[in-house]
Amino acid sequence: MKQGLPYAPAGRVIGLLGGSFDPAHQGHVHITREALKRFGLDEVWWLVSPGNPLKAQGPAPLAERLARARDVMQHPRVTVSDFEARAGTRYTAETLRALIAAYPKVRFVWLMGADNLAQFDQWRDWRWIMETVPVGVLARPEERLRARGAKAADIYRGCRLASRDSHALGQRTAPVWCFVNVAMRDVSSSDIRAGGAW
């Protein structure tokens, strides 16, 4: 194992779902299962981050978030990892560079909700991310139209893979991204925290 991640043979197509998972919930589980089906992935790795650079307030302790994520997401093709804490990376681009260096023969696909696509241009080195790995976007409630009008979506409009071809995403060469509409579960970590359940 490298940096707390499992063995991954050459040619494996692995989706990466990053976030604070504060806390992980059934919405995360749902989009992970959909990503496995829709994007032709062999597996998905949840990258539970030490913190989100775009959020002023820090999340719950990492150990608690990891434990909750492993309890919520039980699937033979999904791994919950603290890679970012082990590798000392803070930003997605840094994490991707470290993963690509550790697994040069693995094909990674970055996964995100449509809400993240809408503010993707605020991420550090976001163009490098788009031009380095395929990106799979799953629609979330009330975010579809705003995401489609996102700066990243506009700039990389010509690199968009039709949703009917989504299964081929992991085999395509970046820059390529695919937006799929799925019946989403209207639940969020912030609502769970606000309700006092976390």
> Would you tell me the structural class of the helices and strands?
alpha/beta
Q: Give the overall shape.
A: globular
| Full CATH superfamily name | HUPs
Strand percentage, roughly?
Answer: 15-25%
Largest sheet: 7 strands, parallel
How many helices? The count is: 9
Number of domains: 1
Strand order of the largest sheet: 3-2-1-4-5-7-6
The stretches of 5 or more residues where confidence is low (pLDDT under 50) are none
Radius of gyration: 16 Å
Mean pLDDT: 86
Q: Which CATH class is shown?
A: Alpha Beta
The count of strands amounts to 7
Q: How would you portray this structure in words?
A:
This protein has 198 residues and is an alpha/beta fold. The protein has one domain: Rossmann fold (3-Layer(aba) Sandwich). The protein is 34% helix and 17% strand. It is built from nine helices and seven strands, in the order βαβαβααβααβααββα. It has a seven-stranded parallel beta sheet. The longest helix has 13 residues.
